[in-house]
Design goal:
Strand order of the largest sheet: 5-4-3-6-7-8-9
Keywords: Signal
Protein name: Short-chain dehydrogenase
InterPro entries: SDR_enzymes, SDR_fam
Number of strands: 9
Distance between the termini: 21 Å
Radius of gyration: 20 Å
Oligomer: single chain
Pfam families: adh_short (PF00106)
Order of helices and strands: EHEHHEHEHEHEHEHHEHE
GO molecular function, one term: oxidoreductase activity, acting on the CH-OH group of donors, NAD or NADP as acceptor
Bound molecules: NADP nicotinamide-adenine-dinucleotide phosphate
């Protein structure tokens, strides 16, 4: 296949609102984004842009890489699924069978609310024993999994607390078949350079929670001997961690530095640990859970319908579906739970 250099214009002075995971602007500009990949070197504003080169298989350039990768533009992705009547995407229940979770021992971080709580409910309803690592517990959770299975007061940024909790989990029976790293944080305000809204403390906090958090938990689980043979280490990350997709989803706007950097760091830690832990027989998988209607995305409420946001109970099935499928063959992969396809780095 012929490769040539494509020049992509990146505006340094874009002002329009950008958004992260599913972007309104990404959505709006996605075709423009593709056009800019395809049509080479016309800068959108000659006085305010710089250019950079990307090497791509442009002659047949297809964002989906022939269907083997998911689509960066979230609106287009959702529209394509509807056009193709893709049941895997539109109705996860049509392919999902949670039976395999029966009798499994699953640790879920941030299982007290949002997607984590739904993952917990779904796994329990299929006969799994779910242990929850969280900062604060609640009655609903304790009724669901049993008070003794809630390890509360544990912040994933606190190495000592995480290690202590995993040792306790080991002493309480250990033998975790799955560790689902779901706890995450997305700073509410939009960060940009040009509006002078960068918040470095928040950036470090997000990197600590979303980047280091899963590494801390997984490492503590390994060291404590809390894993069963062939355990699956699952990391709920975000498509926001894909550098390549920033050219579409944050086109001409950038923004949300801390969150996106934290997920890129998360992805790097996962790939490194997938390589390191092969010899132990533990797989590591990175899952973008899709767009879920939770507190985290409430700020994007107005685009929930347009961009295919689902109830977190659906998101939970999507995550568990891919978690169950993960194996030593797929270790280190970064997948979109909406369609099961890979996301480029
Ligand atoms: N919703 C989406 O569309 C979407 C898209 C892409 C990725 N994700 C990822 O999916 C995961 C779940 O998201 P969500 O939508 O359910 O978010 P959410 O409703 O905001 O819930 C976040 C969960 O993470 C926990 N958490 C936050 N900081 C923590 C810390 N320092 N230590 C321990 N727990 C902490 C929260 O616990 P507290 O109750 O103690 O705050 C809560 O349980 C996150 O990792 C998120 O980044 C979500």
């Amino acid at each position: 296949m012929m490769f040539r250099s494509i020049v992509v214009s990146l505006s340094l002075f874009a002002t329009a609102e950008a958004w992260v995971t599913p972007t309104t602007s990404a959505a709006t500009h996605s075709h423009a984004a593709l056009a800019s990949f395809e049509s080479s070197s016309k800068p959108s504003s000659p006085t305010t842009t710089r250019t950079t080169s990307l090497s791509m298989a442009d002659d047949n350039f297809d964002e989906t890489r022939g269907g083997t990768y998911s689509i960066a533009d979230q609106v287009k992705r959702f529209e394509t699924a509807k056009k193709e009547n893709n049941q895997r995407y539109l109705d996860i229940a049509s392919v999902y069978n949670g039976g395999e979770l029966s009798g499994k021992r699953i640790l879920v971080t941030g299982g007290n609310r949002g997607l984590g709580l739904e993952i917990t409910k779904e796994a329990v309803s299929n006969g799994a024993t779910v242990l929850v690592l969280c900062r604060s517990s609640n009655d609903e959770l304790e009724e669901l999994v049993g008070k003794w299975n809630v390890y509360s007061g544990v912040d994933v940024t606190d190495t000592e607390a995480v290690e202590k909790a995993l040792k306790k989990i080991k002493n309480d029976g250990g033998a975790l078949d799955y560790v689902i790293n779901n706890a995450g944080y997305f700073y509410e305000k939009k960060e940009t350079i040009l509006d002078n809204t960068l918040n470095f403390d928040e950036q470090l906090k997000q990197i600590d929670i979303c980047g280091l958090g899963p590494l801390r938990v997984n490492a503590a689980a390994v060291h404590a001997g809390a894993l069963s043979e062939g355990a699956k280490l699952v990391i709920v990350t975000s498509q926001a961690g894909s550098c390549e997709w920033r050219f579409t989803q944050n086109k001409d706007e950038g923004g949300d530095y801390g969150h996106h950097m934290s997920r890129a760091a998360c992805n790097m830690a996962a790939v490194l640990s997938s390589e390191e832990l092969k010899k132990k027989g533990y797989s590591v998988i990175l899952l973008h859970p899709g767009f879920n209607r939770t507190e985290m995305t409430a700020k994007y409420k107005e685009i929930w319908d347009k961009e295919g946001a689902v109830d977190p109970s659906v998101g939970a099935k999507r995550v568990l579906y891919e978690a169950m499928k993960s194996s030593m063959e797929t270790t280190g992969q970064f997948l979109n739970c909406e369609d099961g396809l890979r996301i480029p780095w």
